[in-house]
Amino acid sequence: MGTAGAAPAPEEQQPPKRTLVFTYGTLKRGFSNHTLLQELARGGDASFVGAATTASRLPLVCGPYRVPFLLNLPGAGHRVAGELYAVTPRGLARLDELEGVSRAHYERLPISVDLAEEGCARVEALAYYAHRDYADELWRRSGEKGYPEYSHAVAAGYVRRKDRPQDVTFLEQIRIFVSSQS
């Protein structure tokens, strides 16, 4: 007796919104933490956008164990070369975890970058900066000199997290580093 109604169309799932993230250190291709971005890419949570350079000059310095830190001190330092990735919210949460955002190691803040391709288009992204609680001290400890790129030569001597002393927190390691002579 009645007519069968048409089944409702399945809701089309929208792909997760992606956020652009500028990487300048160990997350770049060829460096130790890039494996995380590769894992995220395999799961559909990250994709490489292209090479990019900061739109303004910013200090890029090395802290304890040659760990790279971008400092939120616009006008100092160099235009820093790095890589741009598009990441999902799940990918961003994994990057936050790696970068110690909840532990005040780094803070995720906006940044303007120029893409190397695309006619040098300027885009807005996020980057992981040294936490404001010690950024000025890192800049002073570096002699107020930074690098235009975290290259393999700059990274020479980098110590992976698993190979660092485990009885001292990373924040304690930073405080020891900034209080020591260069």
Automatic annotation (TrEMBL):
GO terms for cellular component: cytosol. It comes from Arundo donax (Giant reed). GO terms for molecular function: gamma-glutamylaminecyclotransferase activity. Belongs to the gamma-glutamylcyclotransferase family. PANTHER family: GAMMA-GLUTAMYLAMINECYCLOTRANSFERASE, TROPONIN C-AKIN-1 PROTEIN. This is Gamma-glutamylcyclotransferase family protein. Residues 21-134 form the Gamma-glutamylcyclotransferase AIG2-like domain. Coiled coil: none annotated. The active site is at residue 99. Transmembrane segments: none annotated. Putative gamma-glutamylcyclotransferase. It comes from the Eukaryota. InterPro entries: AIG2-like_dom, GGACT, GGCT-like, GGCT-like_sf. Gene3D superfamilies: Gamma-glutamyl cyclotransferase-like.
